[in-house]
Amino acid sequence: MGLPDMASFGNRASRLTGGTLHKAYLRTLGPGSVSSLLKIALDVAYVLLALITGVLLLLWVASIFIPLDNINVTVSDGSDGRQMPLTRPLLLFGVGAVTAYFGGFLVILRGLRKIFRTLTLGDPFQPDNVRRLRQIGLILAIVTGGVWAAQAAVSRLAPGVMEPQGVSDLLTPVFSILVVFVLAEVFREGARLRRESELTI
């Protein structure tokens, strides 16, 4: 009986090992990939955020009719607390600001769900994704500016309720906004290259 063909044995082992390692790695695009799992997580978060936003919207409408006679809120500035009357404009502003905050992130999640749907289909470089990313960046900028302005206004009108944001607090949101707009340009370039490739073929 002759010796086994070591080259053939090595090739067979390499094919088996390569196939096992290939299956061990998770795919990032297409059905059953990491993108599809993230799409499911985004769907769940979107439904929960939609419910929260709906409840807040109903609460804002109810705030128009809720009687506020002799209702006070306690404001603390860190050392002691003081009471101030809860007025209807203050209540409407507070509930409306929170509702707008959650509503903005609801729109952002809707855009992300559509983007991850294209990732799940394995076709991310679509012109619509460029528009969606720019919309996400714009809404994120509006939400960031709105939160900064609201906190600055509340800190002046009702000292002790909250502290205004400093410039350093805006570094992370501004960086995130810039990253989103850069990603939009990357997707735009990818869509252009795909279009040129299709025309060439």
Automatic annotation (TrEMBL):
Pfam assignment, any one: DUF2975
Keyword annotations: Membrane, Transmembrane, Transmembrane helix
Xref: InterPro entries: DUF2975 (IPR021354)
TM ranges: 44-66, 86-109, 136-158, 170-187
Keyword Glycosyltransferase on entry: no
Organism superkingdom: Bacteria
Protein name in UniProt: DUF2975 domain-containing protein
Native source species: Brevundimonas faecalis
